[in-house]
Amino acid sequence: MAIDISSGVGQVVAQRAHFDAPLALRSGAVLPAYDLVYETYGTLNTAKSNAILVCHALSGSHHVAGTYVDAPDNIGWWDNIIGPGRPLDTNRFFVVGVNNLGGCHGSTGPSSINPASGKPWGADFPLVAVIDWVKAQARLADRLGIDAWAAVIGGSLGGMQALRWAITFPQRIRHALVIAAAPRLTAQNIAFNDVARQAILSDPDFHGGHYYEHGVKPWRGLRLARMLGHITYLSDDQMGERFGRELRGGSLGFSYGVEFEVESYLRYQGDKFAETFDANTYLLMTKALDYFDPAREGAGDLAAALAVAQAKFLVASFSTDWRFAPARSREIVDALLKNGQDVSYAELSCDYGHDSFLMPDPKYHAVIRAFLGNVKI
User: Fold this and answer.
1) Candidates 329, 354, 356, 361; catalytic one
2) Residue 345: helix, strand or coil by DSSP?
3) Which of 41, 195, 297, 341 could bond to 336 as cystine, CB 3.0-4.6 Å?
4) Catalytic positions (predicted)?
5) Residues 321, 329, 356, 361: which is the catalytic one?
6) Long-range contacts, stretch 246-251, CB < 8 angstroms, 24+ apart
7) Active-site residue 365, yes or no?
8) Residue pair 355/237 in contact by the 8 Å Cβ criterion
9) Strand partners, 98
10) Catalytic, out of 156, 235, 317, 356
């Protein structure tokens, strides 16, 4: 689907913030210092009350919207929703996108230099949890002079961060948009993540996570991990409509090569991802997904965990999303309603499976636009 960038934010520039204060992580490890790479769109008002934080999903980054002067084809991953007059209207809002800790797009992560050794962190980079990302994002908000976000929004793992913000910093978030997310992963989702990790860990070029020093990368494992993940992001109907059982050569080849169009597509997606993403980051991100479970703080009661939240919520799901099915979003809604908290819910009919939250679907965008239209700044 072509994306119209004519009315978007245009050319953008990534920024870097360095933090010297140590960050204590949920694992018990301490990160002595770190960098966060981020981008901003729109203008922060005098009261600093119009800021929206966009949290990225597993494979996302700080580059949420716009293009770069030296890379005009590198369009932000959520460009279709951000810009003048778009649902995240940059005529009203100051929008911030951050590459999370452990990332591979500029923020401190496994491929960064460990000051203690002078070598890339590799497998020595500590595991991070969603709460660690939120605490780091809060420090960035402090740096920008933002006491409270007008809204925090994200899809998938990004939606989990919005949920975590509402629990951990209830006075610093006025609205939370939790899209195509879940209060915790099912056993099936954890299983998918583990198979993806095993593909990377068993790659002979992984070298225990220190492949940087060997001048190689576990390309084969990362490629397989992405292919598996990509299957779960799409709906069966969409794959059938796009590829069906079409053969590339028009007839059976009786080989193990690429014969079906869907095979070609998956291998292309795997190759493209493996070229730009870091395998250690993939491992970290999937573990953060597995660990996320705020109900643990309420003795297994999600409503108890959410009781501290002061934000107004929009929870949105998609009919064809079987990775994070609508029933998972309704668990969040039910918990908020149990507490008498302010929540709106939209279950949208969209054909793109889990990836629907990335698409410029008119009804979906209308829901986001309507909710944010009621945000007072």
Assistant:
1) 354
2) strand
3) 341
4) 156 (nucleophile), 321, 354
5) 321
6) none
7) no
8) no
9) 38
10) 156
| Active-site residue, 156 included | yes
Helix, strand, coil % over all residues of the chain, rounded to 5 = 40, 20, 45
pLDDT above 70 for 4: no
- Residue 225, φ and ψ in degrees, nearest 5: -60, -40
Q: pLDDT grade, residue 25 (50/70/90)?
A: very high
- Does the active-site annotation cover 354? yes
* Cα angle value 102/104/105 (rounded, 5°): 120
Task: Please give the sequence-ordered ranges of beta strands (E in DSSP) within 122-246, or none if there are none.
Answer: 151-155, 175-179
- Was 194 annotated as part of a binding site? no
Nearest to 93 by CA among 150, 8, 155, 140: 150
How far is residue 121's CA from residue 211's CA, in Å, rounded to a whole number?
Answer: 11
Distance (Å, whole) CA 163 – CA 177: 8
Contact 103, 133 (CB under 8 A): no
pLDDT digits (tens, 9 = 90+) for 152-173: 999 999 999 999 999 999 999 9
pLDDT in tens, 222-232: 999 999 999 99
User: Annotation-wise, does 226 bind a ligand?
Assistant: yes
pLDDT at 3 over 70: no
